[in-house]
Structure formats: structure tokens, C-alpha cells
Amino acid sequence: MRWLPFELHTHTPHSDGTHTLLEMCTKARELGLSGIALTDHNTTSGMADAASVTEETGVAVIPGLEWTTFYGHMLTLGVPYSEWRDLGPTDIHKGIDRVHRQGGIVGIAHPFSLGSPICTGCHWEYAVQDWSRIDYMEVWHETLPPMRNHNAPAFDMWTRLLNEGYRISGTAGRDWHRSSDEDDPPAFTFLGLVREAGLPGTEDVVDAIRSGRICVSMGPLLELQMTCGEGSYGIGDVVDAENAGADASCELTVRVTPAAHTGRRLGTDEQGRVIIVETNAGEMLRLPVKEGADEIRCSFGAKGLKWMRIRLSGMLNGALATIAFTNPVYFK
């Protein structure tokens, strides 16, 4: 698996951003990003420059859109355009089906942001009748997301939906409108790509998000490999626990790779970091990360599990916070 950092929520002057696509991708390259999704509000006109910008900067540009409505903001990825203006508070699925029919995916943006009168429509109010139709959710929003109050209920909502059996991917979105040397650092969404070489394309990105091959991080990349019975599994995979044997015993290896991207103004301390193994049954294990260690191993029983993810906790700008988390491995 090839893990590449992406920014999945961006804006240019084609909606309300201040930097051109070229300026943003130049900055993205400085930060170490491999690609961005261009998600201007209710327009895809900014994609006209995408091919030339990618050729100049080497940063992939994935087509997207942010439906910006009175009832919430929804991100669409992988389709050139999909109509949104006829959607009311109870029929969001009509719009979602249009995106899916074209091979794209949909994600809820900043579901617990302040709504009217601070930001009309920013708070999610659409009635979702079938959560299996939602591909991903922005559980970390804006720069320095572990410190933003509106992200805690979004992360909790994602966890609750996982507990109910839905396989929804969790992502980060900077909601990138402008750049300054004084900006707080963003989180990156690392996507696990199957293709071993070359610039990632739209299908690569859509497939990674749809499949849940994702690690969200303020710094290090978290990877996991798990053996259960005769099978080997990674982030986003589905474990057939019934075929793993009566005890469904699993061996877990977590790899912590230091951040390679540059331009980060982030105060972190490797001492005191802890790997937390979380499941639908709650917290399973806490494993201290020794300074300089890059792998942690443990064993656990999979009986009764629906999902499992890894979270890295440590000091961030002087406060104890989540630094990174993976999307789940699922069990059936």
C-alpha cells in the first residue's frame, strides 16, 4: 500500500477562496501534499485550470464540489457536477443518488459547525434516512482540528454510526480558503492507494475513501497490519472472524512513521505518546510508544467485535490531544 497525504476540502476565487488553484497547489507542494480535492461552493468552474496546474506543480487535483445549502454542506468527489438546487431538508438522498450513479462519493462537511446566524447552513440539518448511503464524514475540520470544539461531537457521531454497523469513512478537511505564514497547522488525510507508482488519479482517490483506507494525522502516519487465522488485513479491510477459528485470536502490528511533510508549525513531544486500540466495545488496549520505536505489537480476541481502529494520543502544542487516528478494520 502506498500512503499519500491529501487535502480534501479547498476553495479558490471561483467561490470564496483568495488564492488561485496554482497558488494553492504550490503551497500544497511546500507542505508535502500529494494532492487536493477542489471543492468550491456550488461550482466546478475552477477545474478548468487543473491539468496545467498539476503539470506545473506535480500536485494532483481531484474534481469536487461543496453543496452549500440552507440545511447543510455536502462534499461530492469524483464527478464533474451534480445538481443540488432542488434538494429540501428531507430529500438529500435524491442528490446522493445522482452522485453515486456517476461513480462519485459524498461526504458530510463540518456537521457540527455553528449554524445561523453565524454561518447559515453550515450546521448539518438534512434528514438522513439511510446512513449506508453516506460515504464519508469530515470528523476533523479546519486547522489544528483536535483543538476545535465542533469536531468532538462529529467524531462521537462517527463512532456511534460505526457502532450501529455503518461503514462510513472519517476524514479531515482544512476548508482551505487562504494561506498565511501564521496559520495553525492542518491535519492531513493519508490515503492508501493500491496503484504502486504514478500520480494518483480521481479513481484512485475515490476508491481509497470509499474503501476506508485512511489515516488522519497532525503528523505521523499510522499503519496497521493484523493477522487473524490465515488472513492478513489492513486499514479498511473486513475480517471474516468466523473463519479465523473458535477463539478468533488476532495479532496486531502498528507502525508509526514520523511526519515527512515540511512547513509544519507544530509543537509535539514524542515522550508520553500512547497508542489506543478502540473498538465498538470501547477502549481495548493502551500501548505506550517508546521514544524511537516505530512498531508496536499486541494480541487480542476478535469475538464480539464489529470494528477496530487505532488512535495516537500525546502532547500537541502543550495540551494532551489526539494526534492521529486510523479508519477501522471491520469484522463480520
What can you see in these coordinates?
Helix content is 16%, strand content 37%. It has 332 residues and is an alpha+beta fold. Helix 1 (21-31) runs parallel beside helix 2 (50-57). The longest helix has 13 residues, at 151-163. It is globular, with a radius of gyration of 19 Å. The two termini are 23 Å apart.
Q: How would you sum up this structure in a few lines?
A:
By secondary structure, the chain is an alpha+beta fold. It has helices spanning 21-31, 50-57, 92-101, 151-163, 202-211, and strands at 2-10, 35-38, 60-69, 72-77, 105-108, 136-141, 169-173, 188-193, 214-217, 221-228, 231-233, 238-239, 249-257, 268-279, 282-288, 295-301, 307-316, 319-326, 329-331. It has a 15-stranded mixed sheet that branches.
Mean pLDDT: 93
Instruction: Count the DSSP helices.
Output: 5
Along the chain, the helix and strand elements come as EHEHEEHEEHEEHEEEEEEEEEEE
Pick out the low-confidence regions.
none
Topology:
Elements (H helix, E strand, L loop, with lengths): L1 E9 L10 H11 L3 E4 L11 H8 L2 E10 L2 E6 L14 H10 L3 E4 L27 E6 L9 H13 L5 E5 L14 E6 L8 H10 L2 E4 L3 E8 L2 E3 L4 E2 L9 E9 L10 E12 L2 E7 L6 E7 L5 E10 L2 E8 L2 E3 L1
Parallel strand pairs: 1-2, 2-3, 5-6, 6-7, 12-19
Antiparallel strand pairs: 1-8, 3-4, 4-5, 8-9, 9-18, 10-11, 10-13, 13-16, 14-15, 14-17, 17-18, 17-19
Helix pairs in contact: 1-2
